[in-house]
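Before the break, one more example. Copy the sequence into your notebook; we will annotate it together after we see the structure.
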Amino acid sequence: MKIALAASEAVPYAKTGGLADVVGALAKLLPQNNCQTLLFLPKYKSIEEQRWKLRRLPGSLAVPVGSRQEPATLFRKDQGRLKVYFIAHPRYFEREGLYTAPQGDYPDNDERFLFFSRAVLESLKKLGWQPDILHCHDWQTALICAYLETLYREDPFFRRTGTLLSLHNLAYQGLFPKESLLKAGFGWGEFTPEKFEFYGCMSFLKAGIVSADLLTTVSPTYAREIQSDPEKGKGLEGVLQKRSQDLTGILNGLDIQLWTPSKDPHLSCRYSASTVLKKKPLCKEFLQKRCGWTPSPTTPLLGIVSRLDPQKGIDLACEVLLPYLKEKSLRTVLLGCGDCALQETLRELARRHPEQIFVSNDFDEPLAHQIYAGCDFFLMPSRFEPCGLGQMIAMRYGTPPIVVRTGGLADTLRDPKSHPEQATGFLAEAPTSSAVQEALERALQTWRQPEQYRRMVHNAIRQDFSWKKSIPLYLETYQRALFKKSK
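Here is what the structure looks like once it is written out:
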């Protein structure tokens, strides 16, 4: 099967969040499962030709944007059996950030990604590579599905190409003024509530949802939530209900080459499931020293690795942790950046309680690994979480998570209340400070009962969150999309 992946980010080339991890893993694993695979990405400023040894293809493409033509240049890198193509346009992509500047979103994000979406289709035609499936991700590439249903509907090159749109987070929908419809090359006939219109705006994501052959999202629970809960569906729940037969929740996997404590180069002491109880305390000691603290093996250590955003419930964490910081009964290490107000709140907590909370707002990959390995618990109180990778990584490192029962968090954790012998973490029943505090208090009670805590650590580290369960589900979904297209 021939699969073309189109996304705005993918590891190792460009990343702002979990989308990059998922696309990067799929792109790497599909060729290992008998799929000819191409990956298309924008060539951002950070993707340097010399560093990545990119090869520029001769000539250029003329990509329609509104009434004008914009040139696109293609670069290629062979990553084993995977071929990665980068679409270059200096004015659109030679910028410091992928989507935002310090003052906010780039105002021309509509042009940037409608250009990229259409350039993917024109690139495939230039290469003469006819995909069986075009797998698009989030709003940045959702218009590819819409283009194939409208402007390219009669194009014989794509006559047999099916489309799959993966919804990673409905909080980001690509909403733009209605005039963006014309920039994209569509007519006003597409600007209706049944098609691309969303409360007077042009919605890139909705255009993809109503146009794609099939849809996936990143966990079974999130697939149900976005059809029934307005808070999770973000106004698209009705559209998704209409497509319920075409929507599948497939849990994300982890890159186990990157996240394996027995091979992790960032750890002071590596360990496996058989040595976790002996060697994990050494990682805790190292982490506390790195924070400038005198190590205390008897004080519970809580870790947070997160984007600082209201979605992630960091404000709830601050509220819940304050009494423990004052009592000096708990230490916390937090790594994350984002919302300026949350960053300042956390810095103030660290100034007031320097022996109890350590905060780093820098991107620090080694520290992230050390937090997953060195902490006794991992706090992730997200108000909603389509899938979540942090809780999976924490369990893989033998660190029981404390999370809210939502999305992929609910799908991946077992709580002692329902699984007393097989528990892997703690579920708060709602995204409220009282519910999160109740879950944290249960975690600390377990910490005070060493036998129960050790059993939970063993249960957690033995969980399998690799892609070997998810890849067959994607392959099955590709076959379904291809069958639907053929009909």
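The chain is about 40% helix and 20% strand. The two ends are 18 Å apart (CA to CA). Try to locate both features in your own notes.
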